[in-house]
Amino acid sequence: MNHRLLTCAFALTTALASMAQAHVMDVNTKKAGATVQSTMYGLFFEDINYAADGGLYGELVKNRSFEFPQAFMGWQTFGNVTLKDDGPFERCPHYVSLAWAGHTDRRTGLVNEGYFGIGVLKGEEYRFTVWARAPKGTARIRVQLIDANTMGERQDFATAKVDVKGTEWKKYEVRIKSPRTDNKASLRIFLDGRNPIDLEHISLFPVNTFKNRENGMRRDLAQALADMKPGVLRFPGGCIVEGECLENRYQWKNTIGPVENRPLNRNRWEFTFEHRYFPDYFQSYGLGFFEFFQLSEDIGAEPLPVLNVGMACQYQNRNNEKAHVPVDQLDPYIQDCLDLIEFANGDTTTTWGKKRAEMGHPAPFNLKFIAVGNEQWGEFYFVRMQKFVDAIRAKHPEIKIIGTSGPDSEGENFNLGWEAMKKQKVDLVDEHFYRPESWFLTSGLRYEKYDRKGPKVFAGEYACHGKGKKWNHYETSLLEAAFMTDLERNADIVHMATYAPMLAHVEGWQWRPDLIWFDNVRMFKSVSYYVQQMYAQNKGTNVLTMTMDGQPIAGQEGQDGLFASAVIDKPSNTVIVKVINTSKEKQPVSINLSGIKGERTAETLTLTCTDMMAENTLDEPEKITPQAGTLACTAGKKSTVINDEIAPMTFRLYKVKK
Fold this sequence. Notes:
The protein is of the alpha/beta class. An eleven-stranded mixed beta sheet has the order 26-29-30-35-32-33-34-31-1-27-28. An eight-stranded parallel beta barrel has the order 2-14-17-18-19-20-21-22, surrounded by six helices. The two termini are 45 Å apart.
């Protein structure tokens, strides 16, 4: 035998040996299984990590109405500035009066520092608005964007003037175009002349907000949410819903109507973590329930509001009955739920539907879901929840109700929570699990054993928290992808899932890991974001059975760290297979697509990295991203076959037209 024949024989033997060692996976494309809900993969918003003010909400001025307990927090004043409290807005009465400093060379005015600075982009316009009056009939202010570090020749780099006429309060507007990008600018206002002026609700917004709304969202962050193609948006929390006491719980009725008259609320995350303490963390409510509903509509997600059940945070008030509303005094809280449904869905002749229309949205928001309570547990919660369920069912049987199983992913309180929610016949149960790597690796069959006759599952808050390293490194994101195959396989019982938290300012975070990180002018999507996006954009319409040796592929013994699931998208007639290799070795696989015949080309999307501690950053926002490709599929005896070798610690998705 010559050398060439020997070489060919060796290559053939090697190929056959490799194929013999391949993990054979069978996908039955002929029978579509459980429906994958449109809400399957979504987003969870909570105002933690400066996610609202200083983040998604486009306002650039901190403490714009001087309502912080320390009225000038966020402001530096100079000259003759007086704080007053008889302003035009009942729930935000404070304003400032600027008067002549008494000498030609002296100045009166104030400077706002923004949220860790004011971020402006080169060439972009910014809308400055203020409610003002001139006690003497006329007055003028100069509005400037200034360089906070003052190292240049001039402090100001953009200036505009506002002439105020009349002694009555009126809203004024001017646009300022920034000639440069600055992550740490400040806003300065000078009194121009000797005539005094009163200023209230001093605001600066990008003109170019998401969907160009005047009271809108920061464009790049909102676009990242839309790009995920989420099915549901849960808001406004989270522990925000509870408050550390009932006084600072989130109250939706305070968040609607004119933004100038929405009262300030203390953010319960201001003081929660001593090692990450932010004394200037409050809620302006500029991003309120109307804006949440509108954002849901804008990004194509079902709105899922969460309301207070008459309880403060149980973590901070364990077994303290006095911290919660007595059971016989729950009526105002229950009425809040009923009124919210009317606000979202009522016609314009109803009390709350009319208020929605007055805010610019006559058409209903088509609310389908409402959640009551967040991470509550035990009899404190159960007895209160029952009253909400009874009232909502009686008036709005069309609305699906979501209860909670508490903060644990298993254990006594978790089991009691599920038992109570089944008894109350809620539609979905909200589960939360922030767990280490080992939990995600061993929970690949979590939902196979769930009762199919009870409520459905909403995995409302979850993330893999690396043991001793809680940040967005690659390994934890990959393990989240592996776990999500179980969500997909069990779409008959799991109807919603949302990673948490969603947003974090790089200088103002209190909790990590997080889905999206940002500073004042830049942002990056974590690897976890891309995992969520790969699922959300490829959720399909129906589950397909996918097995290895007749068993679900869930990292079980003998499966070499492989996790997998499959769906079909009926409108496009496409089979979508997701395979995750969580082992440190490459894994050859042979995926038989029964019901499809002949040679095909698979579109692939691959998320991989050799450094388990690597992460995306502001400076390297696309360090780890999914890469598109193609792969030839061979014709088997009765099926189309995908033969592939999946690299260590890799998530690969295949799409094959049926």
